[in-house]
Amino acid sequence: MALAKVVPGGEIPVFLTAILSHLALDAIPHGDTGIGHWVHSSPDRKTKLSRLLPMSIADQLIALIVFLILLRSPAFAAVPLPLLLTGAIGSMLPDYLTGIRDLLQRPPSWLETLHRLHDRCHFHDRDPFSIRGGLIFQALLILVSIFLAWR
Ligand SMILES: [Zn+2]
Fold it and tell me: Relative to the CA of 51, which of 13, 60, 69, 100 has its CA 20 to 30 Å away?
């Protein structure tokens, strides 16, 4: 949404920079390493889905609530809704693609390639955050962004 406000040129530049912002931010440790190991260590596909889907649904609900809060804020009042949606969707697209890849038994090679690129952007050293620490860190970032948008 912030990129939609500052990146000139319309939906395509906003969409592309939003995707790049996701990949850049994934390089910062944010406590999801443990969650990834937990999901991918599932003994079977059914268990994997039972771990992945509730988390994804919760993630999307939180994203929607934060989007709606920010949408009503003074910071984004003058930004057209299609641009804000483009920024929001672009910023989440790499995770959608990886999620779809995780759900497919035989993902197409182009999807596997995009997933590998996405995965390569992730922070891969020892994550300084536990899952709880990462959730607190991310919640604080969300609260700060809401605070700044309403200032
Ligand atoms: Zn990601």
Answer: 69
Q: Residue 65's Cα: distance from chain center in Å?
A: 14
Domain boundaries, the chain: 9-150
**pTM score, whole prediction:** 0.90
Quote the ligand 1 centre to 45 CA distance (angstroms): 21
- Whole-number Å distance between alpha carbons of 91 and 149: 18
The Cα 151–Cα 147 span in angstroms is 6
pLDDT in tens, 72-121: 999 999 999 999 999 999 999 999 999 899 888 899 999 999 999 999 99
Q: How far is the CA of 56 from the centre of ligand 1 (A)?
A: 12
pLDDT in tens, 113-148: 999 999 999 988 888 888 899 999 999 999 999 999
Question: Do residues 30 and 125 make contact, with C-beta atoms less than 8 angstroms apart?
Answer: no
b/e 81-116 (16+ beta carbons within 10 angstroms → b) = eebbbbbbebbbbbbebbbebbeeeebeeeeeebbe
